[in-house]
Amino acid sequence: MTNIILGKNQYGKAENRVVRITRDSPRHEIEDLNVTSQLRGDFASAHFDGNNEHVVATDTQKNTVYAFAKDGIGSPEDFLLRLGRHFTGEFDWVTGGRWEAEQYTWLRIEGDNGEHDHSFVRGGTETRTAVVQIDGDDTTIIAGLQDLTVLKSTQSGFVGYPRDKYTTLPETEDRILATSVTAKWRYNRNDLDFNEVYADVRRLLLAGFSRNYSYALQHTLKEMAEAVLEAHPEIDEIRFSTPNKHHFVVDLSPFGLENPNEVFFAADRPYGLIEASFLRDGADADHRSWDGIAGFC
Ligand SMILES: O=c1[nH]c(=O)c2[nH]c(=O)[nH]c2[nH]1
Questions:
Q1: Rounded CA gap, 104 and 124, in Å?
Q2: Which of 244, 249, 271 to mutate to test the pocket of ligand 1 (most atoms within 8 A of CB)?
Q3: Atom of ligand 1 nearest to the CA of 177
Q4: Ligand 1 proximal residues by C-beta, below 6 Å
Q5: pTM of the model
Q6: ipTM of the complex
Q7: pLDDT by residue (tens digit) across 107-164?
Q8: Whose CA is nearest to atom 7 of ligand 1?
């Protein structure tokens, strides 16, 4: 018989949709998350012997998510830290795991008398993300956002690139620059006011995107990263995955019309895909907290 050993493994309940309403006063608060819990540890007997005595059921993991929401969520990072510490503390053979969340944005509806107390509209913008990983005494936190769609209608160009026999793209010093930002950043501490830092990083990313002339999306990503790393010593690294959402100037000359960057064709594919990570000098470029986080270079 071929000798088989168990390699890396993890398991749990994926995408637990939990909505927590805080209703201590007439002015309700809403927190809306998609939470995935995955345990790592000694699960060899389940795989090899059909013995489930170490298998904390995925159903139990789901129930724990909802039970913990009763005590409030606070921030996705704090909620995931609570879950991770619970599972690793409660079961000896659970030595670590991975807990991940997406948080959806709800905004208060502007009613007849100002902001409504208990009516909300889903924000059409980005989704907040968080991943907590525990391995023994080691805890790592990656925060982030996805689908933050931004556009600048001028102050962007693309020139000076090499031309070969396949190059047709005309150089331009005035184009639309648009992208949908997915960014993830790595904390070097886990005792933070995560909501406050998140709000400020989001603000800095947008300010960095808009501030200066863009020589390329690559150049603009560096401006965004620099703003974040300068203001937040508790962040060691930020990674981006950004589709270049091309806007092509439509040729209106067949209709006898000029088109000085007024009418564009917004192409959805193919798209340039620009990915980059920026680190504080001296930080670990291959830090273990990125293990299992897909979709970045
Ligand atoms: O900002 C850009 N970066 C590129 O790498 C690139 N390549 C391309 O064709 N257009 C652009 N724009």
A1: 9
A2: 244
A3: 1
A4: 158, 169, 216-218, 244, 272
A5: 0.95
A6: 0.99
A7: 999 999 999 999 999 997 899 999 999 999 999 999 999 999 999 999 999 999 999 9
A8: 272
